[in-house]
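Design review, sub-item: ligand-bound model
Attendees: FS, YL, KQ
YL presented the inputs for the magnesium ion complex:
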Amino acid sequence: MATLQLKQVVKEFGDTRVIQGVDLDIEDREFVVFVGPSGCGKSTLLRMIAGLESVSSGDILINDQRMNDVGPAERGLAMVFQSYALYPHMTVEDNMGFSLRLAGVPKAERSAKVREAASILQLEPLLDRKPKALSGGQRQRVAIGRAIVRNPSIFLFDEPLSNLDASLRVQMRIELARLHDELDATMIYVTHDQIEAMTMADKIVVLQGGVIEQVGSPMTLYHHPRNRFVAGFIGSPK
Ligand code: ADP
Ligand code: MG
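KQ shared the predicted structure:
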C-alpha cells in the first residue's frame, strides 16, 4: 500500500519560485490527476515526488516516512515519461527487464516478471521485436511495462499519451484505468488535457503558477469550481 503527503513543498530554480508551498494528501490506490496549463509546475512537482528533483523546502512523505533525502530507486515508485526512450538495440523483452538486470535480479525471475507484465499489457507476441518495429501505442505500452516489472506501489505518469494520436489516446486511457484496477497501485497522472483529467481521475489537482487552485473529484470540480480559473479550465458552465 502507499499513501503520499506533501507538506508546504516549495521549489525554487535560482530566484524563481515555481512551486509555492503545496500541501496535498493522496490516499492508497487513488488515481490522482495533476492538471493545469503548460509551465504551471506539474512536471516539477512530479519529479520532486520521484526524487529526481530536490525539494527547496517542505516535506514529502510516503507511508508517513520522510522521503526528502531518499534516492529515487528507494522510494518504491516508478515513473513513465512522455518521451519513452526505449533502447533501440534491445528487444522489447530486454527493454522491459533492463532495470531488473541492473538491480541484479536473476534471469529466470526477470523473465517471469517481464512475461507477467507483457501479459497484462498484451505485449506477449512482441517480446522479440525491436522498438523500431513497434507502433507508437505499442512503444508506450513497453514504457509502462518497464515500470510494472519493478512492482512499484506508486506509479507516476508525466503526459504519457501526448505523443499519441487521438484514437490511440482514448484506447490507452481505458487501458490505464484497467491497469489501475488490476495492479492495486496508487497512480499520479500529469496532463494538460482536461478531458483526460475528467475521465480518469478519482481526484483532480488543479495547478496554476505553482499553486493548487482546487482539489476534488471530477464532479465536485465541475459543479462547484472554486473560482473562474478552475471553471474555465475544467469547462464547467459556471
Ligand atoms: P509543466 O510540467 O506544468 O509544464 P514545469 O514543471 O515543467 O511545468 O515547469 C514549471 C516552471 O519551472 C516553468 O516556468 C519552467 O520554465 C520552470 N523550470 C522547470 N524546470 C526548470 C529548471 N531545471 N531550471 C529552471 N527552471 C525550470
Ligand atoms: Mg510538464
